[in-house]
Design goal:
This is TF-B3 domain-containing protein. The protein has 107 residues and is mainly β. 11% of the residues lie in helices and 40% in strands.
Length: 107
């Protein structure tokens, strides 16, 4: 089974230009890679990963959220599927379909 982490989307995650990666997941990310490819709904989404003391997806996260109409209440699973010479590849799995007016709460 591939390593993964989940994020329950909040308004702040939708509005910001970045998405933090949980610290417990850092051990799965190589120090030398700063590019990520998120595969979602049959499309690849390219973005940078901040590789400092804290790690997060940036330079592409907001574009991904806006173009996929990501809403509060969606649960996104980030599954690490491959580490290549140039990038880290994730497959995204989404559970729930909420709207800003009617969020899906997942326990």
């Amino acid at each position: 089974m591939n390593p993964s982490f989940e994020v329950l989307m909040k308004d702040s995650y939708i509005m910001q230009d970045y998405m933090h990666i949980p610290k417990y997941f850092y051990e799965h990310l190589p120090e030398s890679h700063s590019t990520a490819v998120l595969h979602y709904d049959g499309e690849p989404w390219f973005m940078e990963i901040n590789m400092g003391k804290r790690r997060w997806f940036k330079d592409g996260w907001k574009y991904f959220v806006m173009n996929n109409n990501i809403k509060r209440g969606w649960l996104i699973n980030f599954e690490l599927v491959e580490i290549t010479e140039f990038c880290v590849i994730f497959q995204l799995h989404v559970t729930g379909r909420g709207t800003l007016q009617d969020p899906v709460e997942i326990n």
